[in-house]
Write a structure and sequence with these properties.
The protein is α+β, with helices and mostly antiparallel strands. It folds into two domains: about 35 residues, 3-Layer(aba) Sandwich (YefM-like fold), CATH 3.40.1620; about 40 residues, no CATH class. It is about 55% helix and about 20% strand. It is built from five helices and three strands, in the order βααββααα. It has a three-stranded mixed sheet with strand order 1-2-3. Strand 2 and strand 3 form a beta hairpin. It is elongated, with a radius of gyration of 20 Å. The relative contact order is 0.10.
Length: about 80
Amino acid sequence: MKQVSIDRIAGDFSNYMKIAENDNIVITRDGKPIGILMGWEDSEDWWEELLLRDPKFQDRIARSRQSLREGKTKTIEEIRAKYEI
């Protein structure tokens, strides 16, 4: 993963976006990380990133993990048997 100052990225954004398609770039200011530049090969990657950052989705994942810890889940085999899949 590359680290590049925000000033360098601002001066050649198009080039850094091309680089980011294959390798994330940590953006720095005064040598300290302030962000990350990520590229996607297709739109599905974009939607996945949006979903992962959605607070409702994060809450649902947290509740699911809690249910798993409490043993309130069903195996895929149990679901298949219930719905005769």
